[in-house]
Amino acid sequence: MGLLMAIALFVVFKNWHLPHNAMINSVATTTFAVYLIHDNGVISAWLWNDIIRAGRFYDTVFLIPHMIMTAMVIFTVCSLMEFMREKIFEICKLSEKNKVM
């Protein structure tokens, strides 16, 4: 079912051409970093079990609002971390060409 939904979404947006938007592009560049940060083995258990503790909301009306706010906060915090990393690398003149290690 998930695969069919993914294919359907792809087909719907396949030919949709959006004009260039600098803000959308700057946020979009952080998406992979957000995934890497919040799904990191060291971070994910701590984040989901100790910080978010979604289990407290399973049988309440607050589950959906809590999950929406959680997703927004995680994306925002991780995006800010990535923006800061980019600026630090810019200041230190580090790039893909100049490998750190």
Quick structural gist:
The protein has helices at residues 2-14, 22-28, 31-38, 41-52, 63-91. By secondary structure, it is mainly alpha-helical.
Describe this structure in words.
The mean pLDDT is 87. Helix 3 packs across helix 5 (63-91). The longest helix has 29 residues, at 63-91. The protein has helices spanning 2-14, 22-28, 31-38, 41-52, 63-91. It is built from five helices and no strands. With 101 residues, the protein is mainly α.
Count of DSSP H/I helices: 5
**Percentage of residues in DSSP E strands:** under 5%
The string of secondary-structure elements, in order, is HHHHH
How confident overall, as mean pLDDT? 87
Shape: flat
Radius of gyration: 18 Å
Structural class: mainly alpha
Give the tally of β-strands.
0
Question: Any low-confidence stretches, pLDDT <50, length ≥5?
Answer: none
Helix content: 55-70%
Main sheet record: none
* End-to-end gap: 43 Å
Features:
mainly alpha; 5 helices
Topology:
Blueprint lengths: L1 H13 L7 H7 L2 H8 L2 H12 L10 H29 L10
